[in-house]
Amino acid sequence: xxxxxxxxxxxxxRSIRYGVIAAAILGLLLLFYRKPxxxxxxxxxxxxxxxxxxxxxxTTRVKEKFTVFSPASGVLMRVHKHAGDRLQKGELIxxxxxDYMRPIRSPISGMVLKIHRESEGPIEMGxxxxxxxxxxxxxxxxxxxxxxxxxxxxxxxxxxxxxxGGNLAGxxxxxxxxxxxxxxxxxxxxxxxxxxxxxNRPPEMGEGFQVRCRLIARRRADSLVVPVGALxxxxxxxxxxxxxKSRAVKTKLKIAExxxxxxxxxxxxxxxxxxxxxxxxxxxxxxxxx
Length: 290
What we know:
Elements: H1 3-12, H2 14-33, E1 41-44, E2 46-62, E3 65-69, E4 74-76, E5 86-87, E6 92-97, E7 101-105, E8 110-115, E9 121-123, E10 128-133, E11 138-145, H3 146-149, E12 157-161, E13 168-175, E14 180-183, E15 189-199, E16 210-227, E17 232-234, E18 237-244, E19 247-259, E20 262-267, E21 274-277
Antiparallel strand pairs: 1-21, 2-11, 2-16, 3-10, 4-6, 4-9, 5-8, 6-7, 8-10, 11-15, 12-13, 12-16, 13-15, 14-15, 16-20, 17-18, 18-19, 19-20
C-alpha cells in the first residue's frame, strides 16, 4: 500500500483523527499561554578595586588668615584698599588718629580677603578692619558625620570634584579631635567633625569655593564586587539572583561591606557569574529571564 493511501486510511479512523486534532489544539493552547521570558538587566561579576569612602561637601579656605584690628580707640582714616588687592608684608593699610597718626600695616604678604570697615570715622579698640591671607595656600574643610569619620585618618587620599574645573587630588592633613553640633537641611541635629584636606590649588580657585570630596578610607585591589542593586535580604542573609541557562537562580552570599553602591563579596558567587540587577516582584527562583 502506498504511503499516501496509508495516511488516508489512518485519517479515516475517528480515534486517530480526533487525537490529532486534540494534540494540535493542546499545542496551540500551550503556545498561547506560555509565559514569555521576563526582561531583566543582567550584570557580569568581575574582579575590581573596591573603595570604601565617605562623600561630603567641602569649602576652600586660606590656611593662614589674619584679621587686622584697630590697636586703640580713635578716628579711622578711610581705607583705600579693597578685597582682591595684593599687599606686601608691612605695607600701609590705613591710619588711626589718636593724638598722632598711628599707621596700620599688613602683618603678611598676601591678598585682602575682606574689608570690614572702609569709611572714615570713630572706631573702638579691637574693631576689625580687614582680613588678609595668602590665597596661594588653600586648604579644604569638610564636615563629616562622627559615625563616618572614625574610618578616616591623616594621609588618606581625597578625590575633589564639583568646583567647576577638572578633578583634583588631595590628602587628609588633620581630623579634628572634637565634634560639634550642626543642624541639617531637614532640621535634624547632627554631630560632625571637621576634616582638613591639603591639595594643589589651581589658579582659578579662591577662598570659599564649594567642592565635593570623596575621602578614601581604604582600597582593596582585585576584589570581587557587585552593585548593591542586585542584593536583597533573604532572612538573615544576603542573596541575589544568578542567571543560569536563562533562568533565575536564587543564591545566598556573604558581603564583607559596602560603600558607594558597591558591595565587597566574601563568598557565594564567582567572577564571571551573571546576576540580575534590581529584581522586581516577578522575578522568582526558576523563572525564565532574558
